[in-house]
Amino acid sequence: MRTLLRYLLDQREWRDHDAFLPYFKQAARELADFEGKPSLATLAPAKATFEAWYYGKRQPQRDARRVLVRMFGYSIEQLWSEVLEGTTPAPVPLFGTPQTQGRTEVGMDLHEMRRTGAMAARRAMDFAEPRSRADVEQTVARSIASATATPRTEYAVAIAERMSNEVIGFGRLAMDPHQQRAATFGFALRPNAWGMGYGIETIELLLGLGFEDLNLHRVWSARSPLNEASARTMQKAGMVEEGRIREHIEKGAKWRDSIVHSILEHEWRSRAPKTNE
User: Fold this and answer.
1) Cα–Cα distance, 2 to 14 (Å, whole number)
2) Is the pTM of this model over 0.85?
3) How far apart are CA 40 and CA 97, in angstroms?
4) Which of 23, 55, 203, 260 is most buried as measured by Cβ atoms within 10 A of its Cβ?
5) What is the C-alpha radius of gyration for the chain, rounded to an integer number of angstroms?
6) What is the rounded CA–CA span in Å between residue 207 and residue 185?
7) Distance of CA 243 to the CA centre of its chain
8) β-strand 167-175 against 182-189: which pairing, if any?
9) Lowest-pLDDT range of 1-15, 49-63, 86-100, 193-207
10) How far is 237 from 161, CA to CA, in rounded Å?
């Protein structure tokens, strides 16, 4: 059977083990760095294993599956779906194509937003449950309305890949009604964009908006206790872990704690690059 994986490998001229292996190892190292699991970086399929994948005889084990999904953007089910000779593949990538630029307009494709939010929620185990198209339409409508509100209390940002201008994520900065000159933020990126520096770039974009453009004093965010990757990214951006909010989020009929990180105006100023007068 000619699978979608074989079709993609043929397209990239990775038909043999030697051509394929360097790209697989690179994706495995990126995944290992992102998740803080060095063992992932050692993944390297043998020639016989690669050939079994190529000819659709056997699917990979769990960790190797995740590497392949990261490489190609398709789910394992899609990668092992049949592609008839002389035809082009029908499946649409779950995650799209993998530096970024902030786009403050919110007219991004609804389906892309729904995929981004749903997959990030499932993988990162953060706040949101997977959203329906109707949910995303409401989010877009709210974001458009907030852009013209007076006073403005919410800023929605689409994150786009710089070269292709393709949307790979969504960010939001919202004023905190309980504190003067304060705001909270959140963001989601496509899983195949994780571990590539987009997270830190997104956070710094939102912090720059808050401190440089809006003259805020404090910006904070909260994460799942299980999301250690988010913790490392916020720490890299200069944010300080403040503590735990007990049973903060109800998800799947269960209450979950949240870990709060914040950064203050003078901390941001001390990190921001100085320019010559």
Assistant:
1) 15
2) no
3) 22
4) 203
5) 21
6) 9
7) 24
8) antiparallel
9) 86-100
10) 20
Residues 6+ apart with CB under 8 A from 40: 28, 29, 31, 32, 63, 67
The whole-number pLDDT of residue 76 equals 80
CB count, 10 Å around CB of 175?
18
The structure tokens listed for 28 are: 């495995």
Q: At what angle do helices 62-72 and 4-11 cross, to 10 degrees?
A: 50
Residue 5's CB: how many other CB atoms inside 10 A? 24
Which are the contacts of 268, defined by CB distance < 8 A and separation ≥ 6? 207, 211, 219, 238
First CA to last CA across the chain, in angstroms? 66
Q: Which residue has the tokens 């999904």?
A: 69
Ramachandran quadrant class, 56 (left: phi over 0; alpha: psi -120 to 50; beta: rest): left
Element (DSSP H or E) covering residue 15:
none
Read off the tokens for 185: 């933020």
**Residue 88 half-sphere exposure, CB side, CA atoms within 13 Å?**
1
Supply the mean pLDDT for the chain. Answer: 80
Do residues 126 and 230 lie in contact, with contact meaning Cβ atoms separated by under 8 Å?
Answer: yes
- Angle of helix 198-208 relative to helix 228-236, nearest 10 degrees, comes to 50
Residues 248-263 have pLDDT tens digits of 988 778 899 999 999 9
In terms of Cα–Cα distance, which of 177, 160, 178 is closest to 169?
160
- Write out pLDDT tens, residues 13-23: 899 999 999 99
Q: Any alpha helices (H) in the chain, and if so which ranges?
A: 4-11, 17-35, 47-54, 62-72, 76-79, 110-124, 133-147, 198-208, 228-236, 265-271
User: Residue 277: is its pLDDT beyond 60?
Assistant: no
